[in-house]
Amino acid sequence: MWFIIAVIALLAGAVLLFVERSRGSGGGNAKDRRRWAALRGWEFLDSDPVLPSRWHYGTIHQGGPGVARNLISGDIPTPDGPRHAYVFDHEQAGRVNSVLVAVEVQAHLPAAVELRLPSAPLPDDAGLDLLEPVGARYAFVSDADAVRPLLTSRLADAGDALGEDVELLWAEESWVLATAPLKSTSDRIQDLLADLAEVATALEQAQGARSR
Length: 212
Description:
nine-stranded antiparallel beta sheet; alpha+beta
């Protein structure tokens, strides 16, 4: 009897350890993400079940808002001033699928656009239509007339600079977001934040030209 109880306890412990490792894995486990935030004066949260529901496209539409795990948030310096940003392990249906990085755009975009590499799955959102290639990526948009002026050569270059490990980049309302592999290092995330800031700048520039 005691042997059976011990085996059950051992198995239960192994399951809990696996779950914790799954939640902590990705673009840095909780300890690494917390250290990264502390070095930059950012805020760290173990989890946030509300934040992902702020967005509606990309992986949010495909798998639901889910939960933000190992969330860090703060401002990144840019030539145009600081931009607010989030980095978190995106858990959907109890499984962490990717690292999600979001950077603020200092303008409200007229419609949503997803820029997907050819290797990425097609969007399952009936409200998005394939528009045209933008650099190495294909643009799927919610309003072709509103988005077409935003698809500039600068945006294409900024999207290409993200790299082939970032299959999905999208922009909606006042944010640009990208998915990174779970094994992305802290240095890779740092580079991705800078690249997303350039994407945001390209969209702002195009939006400003469109308004004039």
